[in-house]
Amino acid sequence: MHNQLYLIKLKTDYTVKKVYSLIYSQNQIKSLTQTKLANIELNNSISLPVISIIGRPNVGKSTLFNRILGQRTSIISQVPGTTRDRVSSKTNWGEKQFVLTDCGGLVENPDDLMADLVNDQVTAAINQSDVVIMLVDANDGITPGDLLVADVVRKIKANVIIAANKSDNEERSQLSYVFNELGLGEPIQISAYHNLGIESLMSKIVSLFPPVQNTEEDDTVCNLSIVGRPNVGKSMLLNSISGSERSIVSPVAGTTRDTIDTLITYKNNNILILDTAGIRRRGKISHGIEKYSMLRTQNAISKSDVSILMIDISEIGTNQDSHIAGYITESLKGIVIAVNKWDLSDKYGITEESATKLLKRNFKFLHHAPICFISAMNNTGIDNLINTSINVFGEYTKMVPNLDLKYVIMNSVSAHQPSTSGRKAVKVYGVKQVSSKPPSFVLYVNNPEEIHFSYKRYLENALRNEFGFEGSPLLLDFRKNYYKSK
Which own/partner contact pairs does 440-446 have at CB distance under 8 Å and 24+ positions apart? Predict the structure, then answer.
């Protein structure tokens, strides 16, 4: 299991007791990943400062994260361990822009694989940070869990600030001074829930920021979501793409409960990747955390330009897959179908041709979607998948020259006139593209109500045959107006 996940377990002596902590090993990954993509590099949101919030479980990390962001981004719950993956978001405080990361809680349970994986995520996060907020509970005082976290942060080079959360009154504020004993500086008293002391905390943090190289927005960034049923390999795909254990990889369905954003640069293309919780059938969605994760996945799709729909080779074209594809289609997003675990194709007796036919038959509304065959675990087919996603993004943002557009549409209309149920024939006077993301066209006709959906599909196919638009939806709007051709 650990070898598959590229993790090393190291035993470390702490001042309180012996605990286990997973530490991410770049050398181990280099030796195990023979086909790692050399053209991919992590891009830290255009070199912005990184702040990580760490601490033992249930001290209010996600509440503080959401308080700073001003919106509900991490899943908040009284259940310890809710934030399994580290969740990052680009935000600002005043004129200062930065990346804020909400980490899972550090725990000391050597027999719990999931706890080990969370610890590894925390270690990876703080090693990439400029400022680390060590969050403690003022009401509890120093606990063994706090000592564990303190021992970890002492070994990093980043600036460390202790924030004593739940300092809701004078008595609790006085109790917070006990954290001076950790030797990490004087604690700042805050209450994330009641929005107390946040201004002082953030003022201290931004004063420690290194100079920012470039904070300009890049409109060419492709927002790419990775979606699919639980346990089809979404997190492993993200790790294969980004070259790091960015999301927790585990065979337990439902491991990734938050969306995880990773910005990468691939062949001079900036891609913001959203790895999301898997979408389950409605009957299997429990209230609370699981339900909110599903809503977050739908939200990630809505924010995407392109969605990679991951499908398991053992269950190609299920109703659940169709359900997710429907979300993507209704949201008018570009789509790429990725059939994962293709290294097992011989076992299942499936060829690319047979799989393509099956998908085309089950997903007739996705005839324009390209299909890639990959193995996220073996890192095969990933290069083609990324290139395909970039191409789909190009089609999704494409603007067609007006003269070429008119030529294709008017020739198509001449070759096949629209049928009508009334006495007056339908006439098409002109066409123009009004926008992209997705490509949207207005066709000016004398009687738009008479345009049958089959004729819309005919013209859509004409546009695809001439201009491509692979993986991209098209919007055709028929309006009653006279268009004077210039």
Answer: 440/474, 440/475, 440/477, 441/405, 441/474, 441/475, 441/476, 441/477, 442/477, 442/479, 443/409, 443/476, 443/477, 443/478, 443/479, 444/479, 444/480, 444/481, 444/482, 444/483, 445/478, 445/479, 445/480, 446/480
294-341 tens-digit pLDDT: 566 677 788 899 999 999 999 887 888 888 888 899 889 999 999 999
Domain at 8-33+49-206, CATH class: alpha beta
pTM over 0.90: no
Please state, as a whole number, how many other Cβ atoms lie within 10 Å of the Cβ of residue 462: 17
| Strand arrangement, sheet containing 428-435 | 428-435, 440-445, 475-480
Specify the CATH number of the domain 402-480. 3.30.300.20
CATH 1.10.357.140 at 222-396, yes or no: no
pLDDT digit string, tens, across residues 428-447: 899 999 999 999 999 999 88
Residue 318 CB-density burial (10 A; 0-12 exposed, 13-18 middle, 19+ buried):
middle
pLDDT digits (tens, 9 = 90+) for 161-204: 999 999 988 877 788 889 999 999 999 999 999 999 999 999 99
Q: Considering only residues 154 and 87, tell me which one the structure prediction assigns the higher pLDDT.
A: 154
Name the H helices within 95-197: 113-127, 144-153, 170-175
Residues forming CATH 3.30.300.20 domain(s) in the chain: 402-480
